[in-house]
Amino acid sequence: MTAPSPDSDSPVLLTPDGSRTAHNARFGEAYGSRHGARAQAHHVFLEGSGTDTHPAPRVLEIGFGLGVNFRATLANAAARSVLLHYHAYEFDPAPADLLREVAAGGEGADHPLWARVLGGWGRPEGLNEAAGGARLRVDFCDVTTAEGTEAELPQGWATALYLDGFSPTRNPEVWTPDFVARLAGALAPGGVLSTYSAAGHVRRSLQAAGLHVERRPGAPGKRECLRAVKPA
Predict the structure, then answer these.
(1) φ, ψ (nearest 5 deg) of residue 37
(2) CA atoms within 13 A on the CB side of 33
(3) Binning pLDDT at 50, 70 and 90, where does residue 2 land?
(4) What is the reported pTM?
(5) Which residues fall within 8 angstroms of residue 218, CB to CB, at 6 or more apart?
(6) Arithmetic mean of pLDDT, 205-217
(7) Confidence of residue 122 (pLDDT cuts 50, 70, 90)
(8) CB-based contacts of 45, cutoff 8 Å, min separation 6
């Protein structure tokens, strides 16, 4: 079960694992899993990509959303004292106050880099901040288009890629074969793309892009999710 915020006008949702997400009116879906936003961030993305044990993770995220995946990754890297480079794309940034409310008291919320994120969120030029052994770059653009240098994915860079757009039925541009092929090009050899989706057309697009695709048990509320590895 999910519970609304005490403020009935707030889109914030409390999920069963004690973490928060929020409803996005534009897409008609929650940003993260209503069955456990933190659980999904850990199971699907952090652990599913192997970032939780990587000695020097370079994470590329499609759909920064409310920063739940970032904060989970940030907290893990800080606990292990490893350097983290994180590059995200977000074409429709949520208000900074919503990021702050969702993160309050949660993991990573006390990290100095998160304070910098909230302080600079929404600037047209994007974010490029570093603190506490981690660096975050967020480009506010539609990365599904190939127009403009800000939408050019870093080739062969990512040890992990978090594909976390809204669902294929609501946000189909993020899941097309052409875009998935671009994502595959951004992975370093041996890099792992992880996503909550287990849709057949998503799996086939990942395979067509030359990735080795594995089905995994899903996070709470989902039967399966996908993990796709770029050959070394």
Answers:
(1) -65, -45
(2) 25
(3) very low
(4) 0.94
(5) 43, 44, 196, 198, 224, 225
(6) 98
(7) confident
(8) 51, 69, 72, 73, 160, 162, 164, 194
